[in-house]
Design brief:
It is built from ten helices and 18 strands. By secondary structure, the chain is of the alpha+beta class. It has two domains: 242 residues, Vaccinia Virus protein VP39 (Rossmann fold, 3-Layer(aba) Sandwich), CATH 3.40.50.150; 130 residues, no CATH class. The strands form three sheets. It has a nine-stranded mixed sheet with strand order 7-6-5-8-9-10-11-17-18, with helices on both faces. Strands 12-16-15-14-13 form a five-stranded antiparallel sheet. The chain is globular and about 65 Å long. Its EC number is 2.1.1.77.
Length: 384
């Protein structure tokens, strides 16, 4: 074994140890897969590295600074490989991030949540660099993985990466929202991009008893690791397993929260930081009751916390601004709806249930759409 290969083995083992210590990697088959599909084979020579957690992003350049490049590739960090759908230099970190080599922690956590069996066939949505398709192929063997990528240039590079690494999953270039019906039915669906609405095609293309794992990223607040099981009546039912943030499926990219209008002013004793701070359950409940309300946290020009709201129809906006030491916090609402009032009512309704945690909620996806429920799929959340 030469020194370069030995150094790679040491880096892979150290990464696996860190993932194990964090609780993201517990199964020996995935540890073996990480060794069989070395991550550096899927990393570009120049990119932007972003830790999965606190920390500033930084450029990595294999030619100019190989040590930093290797450290970044084998850190628990996302490597941004594309910005502005290819119209920009990812190594600058500037512009909307549109494709990446995902951070190993979330990758391992989702693969363990997927839990494919030896005989399973897997549909992956979002090939990206090809690394997760390689990990799945290392785990399951040839002929069992189909991966779909919407971006032609990203798909070409993934195919080259996979071939160079010795893996040959079936690769499809197309809209991931449509799945890959020509290869259906699948036993598992592994999604590497965020979705607000789970495409029903994924359920249709999965066998009864099959599993889908995906980053569910509703309009309100953050995202959630989600595991759904397909039933015998054409639905998929399941729950949430922690927080996550992924780039969105291109077909579901949002327009973002617009600048709020002036509107009417009022006060509230409910601290907006409480509404978003009680995120382990409150965020899912609010998203379920108000699926068309976007909510993001902002800092005002004078450094104050604000919760900014808008509806997906574009008719209404609201802001609740924290006022330190004040008896009430400032609310501004404009448009057809009183969005702060709706969000506050949904939050207090969650409180009235005893502030149930995320594990008490679930998601059902069927031909008629999707629904969030509490404790039982029959107990569907609706607006107050």
């Amino acid at each position: 074994m030469n020194s370069v290969a030995g150094d790679v083995d040491v880096r892979i083992a150290a990464l696996a140890d860190r993932l194990s210590a964090a609780g993201d990697l517990t199964r020996p088959e995935w540890r073996r897969a990480i060794h069989q599909a070395p991550r550096h084979l899927f990393a570009p020579d120049r990119a932007w590295c972003v830790a999965d957690g606190p920390g500033e992003g930084h450029a990595i350049d294999r030619a100019a600074d190989p040590d930093t490049w290797w450290d970044g590739v084998y850190a628990d960090a996302a490597v941004i490989t594309q910005v502005r759908d290819g119209d920009g230099d990812p190594a600058t970190g500037q512009g909307p991030w549109t494709s990446s080599l995902s951070a190993p922690g979330p990758v391992a956590a989702f693969l363990e949540l997927l839990a494919p069996r030896d005989h399973d066939r897997v549909l992956e949505i979002g090939t990206g660099t090809g690394w997760t398709a390689a990990l799945l192929t290392a785990r399951l063997g040839p002929g069992r993985v189909t991966s779909v990528e919407v971006d032609e240039e990203v798909a070409k590079q993934a195919a080259a990466n996979l071939a160079a690494a010795g893996f040959v999953p079936a690769l499809v270039t197309g809209d991931g929202a449509e799945g890959a019906p020509e290869g259906a039915p699948y036993d598992r669906v592994h999604v590497t991009c965020g979705v607000t609405t789970v495409p029903y095609a994924w359920v249709e293309q999965t066998r009864p008893g099959g599993v889908l794992v995906l980053p569910w990223m509703p309009e309100f607040a953050g995202g959630h690791k989600t595991r759904l099981t397909v039933t015998g009546d054409g639905r998929a039912v399941g729950g949430f397993h922690g927080s996550v943030s992924y780039m969105m499926l291109r077909a579901q990219r949002g327009r973002g929260v617009p600048a709020p209008g002036d509107g009417t002013e009022s006060g509230t004793r409910l601290d907006p930081r409480t509404v978003t701070g009680d995120s382990d359950g409150a965020d899912v409940a609010i998203a379920g009751m108000l699926p068309d309300v976007l909510g993001v946290e902002r800092t005002t020009v004078d450094g104050r916390y604000a919760l900014v709201l808008a509806d997906t129809a574009g008719t209404s906006t609201a802001t609740c601004e924290h006022r330190p030491g004040a008896r009430e916090h400032l609310v501004r609402q404009s448009g057809d709806r009183r969005l702060w009032d709706e969000v506050a009512a949904a939050y207090l309704r969650w409180v009235s249930w005893g502030s149930p945690g995320r594990e008490r909620f679930g998601l059902t996806v069927g031909p008629e759409g999707q629904q969030v429920w509490r404790d039982d799929p029959a107990n569907v959340l609706t607006a107050a």
